[in-house]
Amino acid sequence: MYNNIGVLTPRGTGTSGHVQANKFNLRRAPVPKFQEGQASAVAAADKKPNQAILEHNKKRQIELQVFQLREELEEKGVSEEEIKEAEEKKRAALVAEYEQQQLQDQDAKLSNETHAVAQRKQE
What we know:
The structure is a single chain. By secondary structure, the chain is mostly helical. It is 54% helix and 0% strand. The chain has four helices and no strands. Helix 2 packs antiparallel against helix 3 (80-104). The longest helix is centred in the middle third of the chain and has 26 residues, at 51-76. The chain starts with 38 loop residues before the first helix and ends with a helix. The mean pLDDT is 78.
């Protein structure tokens, strides 16, 4: 082997014999495997739900429904004033429904969003 690589001598190989390291063969650091009860596994599972994010997502859903109503009314050719009135009524109804859900603690029961899952685990 020549420099501990492949051939015994560079003669007859058609190469100069100059050996370079393979810089594309990167070895990553091994990922630690945590057992049950170790600190890092517990810390990852013990995160608290962020109420601001949950509220923001619900408000986005409300605005999405209002925007869909607006698009439907624009396609039908309804006047701008009637569209704004319909939007306000729809938004008020959805906000009232959201507040009622909050009072009954039924908010985000079926959501798979991480903060909603954390909130269900806390309850």
